[in-house]
């Protein structure tokens, strides 16, 4: 496109409230001002309007109303393409996140199996109370911190510290029993 044509397209855009064409197309596609990328869509609409001005086969000054219909359709299609592209990208990101979560879950399952198959862990697990067993799983399999364990089980951090101490004492007893 020539620089003069582009400038004429922008001049026409800002005459006679022609900006309403862009905002009308955005409204028809339910692009609201509350969206974070609203301004980006409007800017793309401006560019699509100018491109339509350059591509219009007849003289814009002779048929301004027909051009407005032509420009509206061009802006609408461009914004629709951008929405579809954004949607596809969001779906791809969501799919990637789901596959990462599945891999993490798989890794956590393998970690749980390796820890649970450990002989000391099994002995310690079977001689603990239910609360201590939950602590063992949260601490050594899921690698949660004291605060996270307390939040998960709705208990105080002091309670989690007491569980840690009692499990530690039982672990020492299991180790000393195995050495005999």
Automatic annotation (TrEMBL):
One of its GO terms (molecular function) is DNA-binding transcription factor activity. One of its GO terms (biological process) is DNA-templated transcription initiation. Gene3D superfamilies: 1.10.1740.10. InterPro entries: RNA_pol_sigma-70_dom, RNA_pol_sigma_r2, RNA_pol_sigma_r3/r4-like. This is Uncharacterized protein. It comes from Pediococcus damnosus. The lineage of its organism: Bacteria, Bacillati, Bacillota, Bacilli, Lactobacillales.
